[in-house]
Amino acid sequence: RKEVEQDPGPFNVPEGATVAFNCTYSNSASQSFFWYRQDCRKEPKLLMSVYSSGNEDGRFTAQLNRASQYISLLIRDSKLSDSATYLCVVYSSASKIIFGSGTRLSIRP
Amino acid sequence: DVKVTQSSRYLVKRTGEKVFLECVQDMDHENMFWYRQDPGLGLRLIYFSYDVKMKEKGDIPEGYSVSREKKERFSLILESASTNQTSMYLCASSFGVGGPSTGELFFGEGSRLTVL
To answer: Under an 8 A CB cutoff, do B110 and A43 touch?
Structure first.
């Protein structure tokens, strides 16, 4: 079993839709959680951190469920520019950073 | 803005050749990392470094070595390239003192290596 698992997608949704995807992690002692975004043929960039209480940044909402060991990302009112691969990143300890293999999102007009 | 620069965007090498990939960051970050990214496997850590002349093996160090002689520069070396090392290589850096940070990773644009 992978330490961090994501649904690879692709998710293909119309512009304006709400889309959500999850990421599960196996190490219950994991400390920090992030969502990164990677555009085609580009490097990953930080989208947002994920806090225990949940956090929002504009149209994006991230949540953490420690009991069930998953994090989620919700995108409301999706735009064409949201098309990308979304990477879940889990810091299992201070020296172990694990990337999920990514969820591909495609927004159609 | 943090800038992480990788020396080559695209390389084509032959089996058995020695390959150097260089990475330079301009934000005085302590931590630097080398990853490879392959379809379906995500990013896998090859080596990381907390400080000058320090290095730690990641998850897939076999076939690779690294060098960090200056704080801003972290080099990945393939002593004898093989076809299974064809991949996208990504360098990253982050702030942290005395060990890896829990903060943001800043990535370079990547170096796509093809080994024939």
So the answer is: yes
What residues pair up with A21 in beta bridges, in sequence order?
Answer: A73
The Cβ of residue A81 has, within 10 Å, a number of other Cβ atoms equal to 9
Token pair of A61, please?
A: 């909402």
Chain Cα centroid distance, residue B22: 8
Q: Long-range contacts of range A73-77, CB-CB < 8 Å, 24 or more positions apart?
A: A73/A20, A73/A21, A73/A23, A73/A35, A73/A47, A74/A18, A74/A19, A74/A20, A75/A18, A75/A19, A75/A20, A75/A105, A76/A18, A77/A16, A77/A18
Please report residues of A whose CB lies closer than 8 A to that of B45: 97
Of B99, B100, B107, the CB nearest to A44: B107
User: How far apart are alpha carbons A68 and B103 in whole angstroms?
Assistant: 24
The pLDDT, as a whole number, for residue A87 is 96
Distance (Å, whole) CA B61 – CA A75: 36
Sign of CA dihedral A55, A5, A7, A84: positive
To probe the interface with A, which of B105, B109, B111, B112 has the most A CB atoms within 10 Å? B105
Task: Map tokens 């400080």 to a residue.
Answer: B51
The model's pLDDT over A73-86, given as tens digits with 9 standing for 90+, comes to: 999 999 999 999 99
Are the beta carbons of B107 and A45 separated by less than 8 Å?
yes
CA dist., res. A54 & res. B115, Å (int): 44
Mean pLDDT of the region B80-100: 86
Name the average pLDDT for chain B: 91
